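Exercise (ungraded).
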Amino acid sequence: EAGVTQFPSHSVIEKGQTVTLRCDPISGHDNLYWYRRVMGKEIKFLLHFVKESKQDESGMPNNRFLAERTGGTYSTLKVQPAELEDSGVYFCASSQFGQGKETQYFGPGTRLLVL
Amino acid sequence: GNSVTQMEGPVTLSEEAFLTINCTYTATGYPSLFWYVQYPGEGLQLLLKATKADDKGSNKGFEATYRKETTSFHLEKGSVQVSDSAVYFCALSTGGGNKLTFGTGTQLKVEL
């Protein structure tokens, strides 16, 4: 069974440009999470989808970030326009529903560098 | 709010040494506790977890016990190997959404 995949693995863009990150969760996982790790700091929660609906977006830093999950499958996270402080590693994770099935499985991350 | 504090790294050990990485937490309610590991060039992997007080999670020789009285979940391994070199993250989740709150991570380097 394929794990969580993320694309691209790395992205280098200039301040003011737009970048779109993609996450493909494990098939059948209704929960999808986005997290971010800024250099040297803790990994922070951004938002949580249940199928195609945003369950919790309390961690989204500002309105330059837009997340979608089309049809409850893959998800995209768009940053527009990107700022220097958006640099970091963006992780996606997915999980099932149900007691004992809530373990989150993480993708390898997308390393974003804004110059 | 929820928070996790773990010891700062990097931690450098010789092979076969004993490992302890301290983790303490603050949480509303009764959290589930996790240790995740990130090997070089890879994503986060769940190492072990515990869902209630006094539970012990274990995997690959690593252990951690959920201590409610000290709000701690310290990671231990009796004899580390070079292949254990990685970044270790302590985390917790509460509530129905299960979003994770992480510590800052501890880098472990094991040398021959």
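Further reading is listed at the end of the chapter. For now, observe: The longest strand of chain A covers residues 43-50. The CA atoms of residues 91 and 109 of chain A lie 4 Å apart.
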